[in-house]
C-alpha cells in the first residue's frame, strides 16, 4: 500500500484506494488543502501516510501520482492549476459544485436571498456554525461562489433567487 505498484491495473486499484482514504481523512479532519512535502515527512501529523509498525511511509512521488489521478477525476486540484508546482493540492471531498449546492440551500433556508452576505458570514458566521462549509478554505469558497454566479463586491456576495 505504501509503495507505488508498477503494474498499471494494480496501480489504478491502489490509487483508487488511496483516493478513498485521503478524501475520508480530509472530510474527517476538515482539510481543504494538502501540502505534499509536509504530508510525506516523518512525524508530520498526517498519520495516514505512514505506518510506523511496519516502518513504511508513502513517498512524495507516489503521493504526487495519487493526487494526479484524483485531479483527473475531479476530486483534487493542484494549487496554481495544471501548471502549478504540484506540491500542494486542494482536496475535494465535496466538489465546488457540491459546496455551491450546500451554500445555496443554506442561503435559502436562512432567508438570506437578495442581501449581501460576507465571506466571513458564510465561512465563519454564527448562522453557518454546524454547517459542513463552516471554516471552508477561502479559495474553495471562491470556487463554490463562482459556480453560483454570485454578484460579488468588496463587501461580500449577493444571492439572487
UniProtKB/TrEMBL annotation:
GO CC terms, sorted: ESCRT II complex
Task: For this entry, list what GO says about its biological process.
Answer: protein transport to vacuole involved in ubiquitin-dependent protein catabolic process via the multivesicular body sorting pathway
Q: Does the keyword Lyase apply?
A: no
Q: Where is the signal peptide?
A: none
Looking up Gene3D superfamilies in the UniProt record yields: Winged helix' DNA-binding domain. Chain C. Domain 1 (1.10.10.570), Winged helix-like DNA-binding domain superfamily/Winged helix DNA-binding domain (1.10.10.10)
Matching entries from InterPro entries are given as:
ESCRT-II_cplx_Vps25-sub (IPR008570), ESCRT-II_cplx_Vps25-sub_N (IPR014041), WH-like_DNA-bd_sf (IPR036388), WH_DNA-bd_sf (IPR036390)
Coiled-coil ranges from the UniProt annotation: none
Q: Which UniProt keywords apply?
A: Protein transport, Transport
Q: Which Pfam families match?
A: ESCRT-II
Q: Does the keyword Transcription apply?
A: no
GO MF annotation, one: structural molecule activity
Q: Provide the family line.
A: Belongs to the VPS25 family.
Q: What is this protein called?
A: Vacuolar protein-sorting-associated protein 25
Q: Which organism is it from?
A: Rhizopus delemar (strain RA 99-880 / ATCC MYA-4621 / FGSC 9543 / NRRL 43880)
Its taxonomic placement starts with: Eukaryota, Fungi, Fungi incertae sedis, Mucoromycota, Mucoromycotina
